[in-house]
Write a structure and sequence with these properties.
single chain, 303 residues, alpha/beta, Rossmann fold, 4-stranded parallel β-sheet, 4 strands, globular
Length: 303
């Protein structure tokens, strides 16, 4: 496979945009994407891209920066979910505090978190569903903040703690936190202790995270009560509990997002109503179902 110049240029544009939101050095920024400082310097200065990096490196950077070619772009909408997460992440960042959000799946939590990690200075995102073990989680965290993640494990951890205290008001979004194994989960307490009043932390997940924490606290497993305390001693949520309010909330959410992404002629109300029709287990269809229905509707129009 030969990568096009168009793809490489899009990666470069995304890379330079990401640099604006990173408060560390160029060398530390380059480490986030597994390239050395001299290569980044050449990219920044507009040098010829041919032969500068291997195709596998371009692909890795493109994946991590969310660069796509010829794929459907999902327009960002300031839903209540988006605004709530943004407000809480900024609070955690500016005050070096920690919070937990536990809510339904398919609300756009991950989409929002990834967007914020690109839009807010020194805001970093870790997907725990892709880094479940202690080693993988710690080294993934090191990579996203720009610390060398290939050294001795104890040194990598020490460097993370030190570097987070050097950055200006960093905040770490820990997504899918319920996927972390026990050893990895305990690292959250250690990092919090080492960066108290220096770094904000925002943990997100669905019912699995709530069950994981509740079970750990009930069984008096070491660390669970302490972690819950450090993250505010309560679960935040956006969706209402009352059934009628819940349906109204979902109707607004779905309508906003479908409208923003629909082409002319698409029946927005029909798509929203199909999503609101509960399945056999009483679950309402969320944004992924809305996207699928929207794609089907668009394809029918084009046929």
């Amino acid at each position: 496979m030969q990568l096009s110049t168009e793809f490489k240029n899009k990666v470069v544009a995304a890379l330079l945009e990401a640099r604006k939101k990173f408060g560390g050095s160029d060398a530390a920024f380059a480490k986030q994407y597994d390239i050395n400082g001299s290569v980044y310097s050449q990219i920044k200065n507009g040098k010829d891209l041919d032969g500068l990096l291997r195709d596998t490196q371009w692909l890795q950077m493109g994946r991590e920066l969310g660069v796509t070619i010829g794929e459907r772009k999902w327009n960002m909408v300031r839903t209540e979910v988006f605004n709530t997460i943004e407000e809480e992440v900024i609070f955690c960042k500016e005050n070096s505090k920690s919070r937990i959000l536990v809510d339904d799946t398919d609300l756009g939590k991950t989409f929002t978190a990834k967007h914020l990690s690109k839009a807010i200075d020194n805001c970093f995102y870790v997907d725990c569903s892709q880094a479940k073990t202690k080693q993988h989680f710690v080294r993934s965290l090191a990579k996203v903040i720009g610390v060398d993640n290939n050294g001795k494990f104890v040194d990598v951890k020490a460097n993370i703690k030190y570097y987070l205290q050097l950055l200006e008001r960093p905040v770490i979004i820990i997504d899918e936190a319920g996927d972390l194994d026990y050893g990895a989960f305990l690292e959250l307490k250690e990092f919090w202790n080492a960066t108290e009043n220096s770094c904000g932390w925002y943990m997100m997940g669905a019912d699995g995270l709530r069950a994981y924490l509740t079970r750990g606290i009930k069984n008096q497993k070491v660390g669970f009560r302490e972690i819950f305390s450090r993250y505010g001693n309560k679960y935040g949520r956006v969706t209402p509990v009352d059934n009628n309010e819940r349906i109204s909330f979902y109707r607004t959410l779905l309508t906003q997002v479908v409208k923003a992404n629909a082409t002319n002629g698409v029946n927005v109300s029909e798509i929203v109503n199909k999503c609101l029709a509960k399945d056999s287990e009483g679950h309402i269809g969320g944004l992924r179902r809305a996207e699928s229905l929207l794609l089907l509707s668009t394809q029918k129009q084009s046929a």
